[in-house]
Amino acid sequence: MRMILPAAMCVAAILASPALAQSAPERVTRGNLVMENIPEIPGEVRERLRQYQNVRGAMFSDFAPDGGIYITTRFGETDQIHHVAQPMGARRQITFYDERTSGATIRPDGSGQFLFTRDVGGDEFFQGFLFDPEQSRSIQFTTDQIRNQGFSWSRDGRMIAWAAAGWGDADYTIYMADPADPTTAQEVLQGEGAMSPVDWSPDGSKLLIGRYFSINEARLYVLDIGEGTLTQINPDETNAYGAARFSASGDSIFVVTDEGSEFRRIMEIPLDGGEKRIVAEHDWDVQAMALSPDGSTIAYTTNEGGISEIYIINAASGERLPAPDLPVGLIGGINFSADGSLIGFTHSSAASPGDAWTYDLSWQELVRWTQSEVGGLDTSRFQTPELISYESFDGLEVPAFVHRPPGDGPYPVIVSIHGGPESQARPGFNAAFQYWQHELGAAVVVPNVRGSAGYGNEYVNLDNVFLRENSVRDIGALLDWIATQPDLDENRVVVYGGSYGGYMVLASLVHYSDRLAGGINIVGISNFVTFLENTAGYRQDLRRAEYGDERDPQVREFLESISPANHAHRITAPLFIIQGANDPRVPLSEAEQILAAVREAGGDPWYLVAMDEGHGFARQSNRDFQREAETLFLRDVLELD
User: Fold this and answer.
1) In-domain check, residue 462
2) Looking at the whole model, is its pTM more than 0.85?
3) Does an H or E element contain 106, and which?
4) How far, rounded to the nearest angstrom, does the alpha carbon of residue 285 sit from its chain's CA centroid?
């Protein structure tokens, strides 16, 4: 196995490489940023970006016992937890860490305490903390150097359950504890694979456990905590499962699943093996689901061509209840209040970066709690993108969102490719897109190439293993489509993407450098074999389910044959590589090896590493510099004034 070096050693290793010593440009270190070939940032670039970079959103977390709500938002370097006492009231900051925090999850015992998580430097080794508002202090109840996830409160709030794994561990262990007293932590299950708690039974005697294999396959189990027995639900079925909750009686579960359907829907599954019931279904995926505390009401969202819709139904009958009428956009984080009278959620759109809302079920009253800042920008200019589809090489229709700038064109084009790959580009607020449109005069085209989620099981499986490069050919077909558009300039096209989208950038440059002005690869995979060998152990099997198992000689040969690092001589268009040194998903070595390969082939990439970041930049100062450097690169390769 090829071993991954620690971040600092990786940086040092490439500087000492004999192959690079003769041609490598000066490597410059500024604070926690390490860079090559990036020019000085002109003051006017920094100043114009300032407004767009100071756009901030507010994400709904939970209802506070005093009638207010908790949100996460950023007023410094990172997202922190804030309390809002009333609609449009002041945001009072609660946590004050240099590192990002998750949202607050209220302890359901009336104490006002809440759970949150925090990692260090983007390493994703999340730790659990209990915040006590009476003492204004936090207690860490998990163990350092361990990744913790899947935190779930018991109904009475006495205990919390979660899953934990070390860097090289493929199997998660399930723990439970009173988080106010970390010494009470006890192991309740030595799990297999990516197992996590999902819910507690109403009487607290059982845990609903989920095991994730891939976007197409998961399993559900009921763990009897006292007996230590684990019973699989639907043992004869292979399905995908999303959100799952015990019913009020504890005799059944409500679950989002694709069982018997091309799309995900809500089913009720009796635990005694009785007849299953379809509770809600659509011609699109049910995306998220929340069950009221008394089990009588379900709120859920659907993903309808990238747009969110919210529904509220009677859990027993499936009867639709009045639901809020929201502007076109995206909905996330749905949650019921403790008494079940309110639903809280986050709503964002192309013109709004995200705010916290509540809906009163009895009064059918929709209330906006926050109005996040947009840097003083005129949001009337921010338009919902056009949804188009184009035909790929094999006749497949590929959907894409097109953001056009003001003016007549022909516009330069930035093709933004999402990560995942089991993800989906959706028309939410994106400050970078707005900047590119209104300040650089570029059109932004955002495709959902084959393998994207949201369009059914068949579509999401069209890029698996040996079909991988068919998604790259979708980008070639998109370049063909761009060439037919009179307002788009086919000679000035840049590809841009992160994570799997970063691989797509590199692969597009391998195949289409003669048709591209350049590419920006952010935390992207450059060699599937080294990626699978060096990604964190708790992720390896999950990624093998998508990309293929590199331990199989036939699969390994194929993955090597399509890996961009092995074809770097074909990357002749300008390249910008951006990476977080602490990334546990796509390690720093992926960036270093594509940098070395392209340079050895005669290229001269731009390069940026943040030593205090992981899978993408979370700190505002680092994001600011990233956007400034990207702007210079785009100006250069797109020949912008």
Assistant:
1) yes
2) yes
3) strand 105-106
4) 18
CA 509 from chain centre, in angstroms, equals 25
Question: CATH number, domain at 615?
Answer: 3.40.50.1820
Q: Is residue 527 part of a domain?
A: yes
The answer to whether the beta carbons of residues 278 and 262 sit under 8 Å apart is no
- Count the domains in the chain: 1
Residue 621 inside a domain? The answer is: yes
Q: Provide the 8-state DSSP code for 340.
A: S
A 10 A CB-CB count for 168 gives 9
Residue ranges in the chain modelled with pLDDT below 70: 1-23
Give me 537's structure tokens: 């152990």
Rounded Cα distance, 166 and 276, in Å: 38
Q: In this structure, are residues 21 and 295 in contact, taking their beta carbons and an 8 Å threshold?
A: no
Give the separation between CA 609 and CA 402, rounded to whole angstroms: 30
277: tokens are 């019931």
DSSP structure string for 581-596? TT-SSS-HHHHHHHHH
For 100-111, give one letter per residue: b (16+ CB within 10 A) or e: bbbbbbbbeeee
Q: Is 236 exposed, middle or buried (0-12, 13-18, 19+ CB in 10 A)?
A: exposed
Cβ atoms of 550 and 532 within 8 Å: the answer is yes
Q: Summarize the chain as % helix, strand, coil (round to 5).
A: 20, 35, 40
CA-only gyration radius of the chain, Å? 24
Domain that holds residue 426: 7-52+376-637
Count CA within 13 A, CB hemisphere, residue 252: 17
**456-502: pLDDT as tens digits:** 999 999 999 999 999 999 999 999 999 999 999 999 999 999 999 99
Q: For residue 294, how many C-alpha atoms fall within 13 Å in the half-sphere facing its CB?
A: 8
Q: For 469-538, give the DSSP string.
A: HHHHHHHHHHHHHHHT-TTEEEEEEEEEEETHHHHHHHHHHHHHGGG-SEEEEES--S-HHHHHHHS-HH
Strand partners, 320: 313
Nearest CA among 62, 25, 545, 557 for reference residue 346: 62
Structure tokens at 370: 């926050």
Q: In whole angstroms, give the CA distance from residue 357 to residue 366.
A: 7
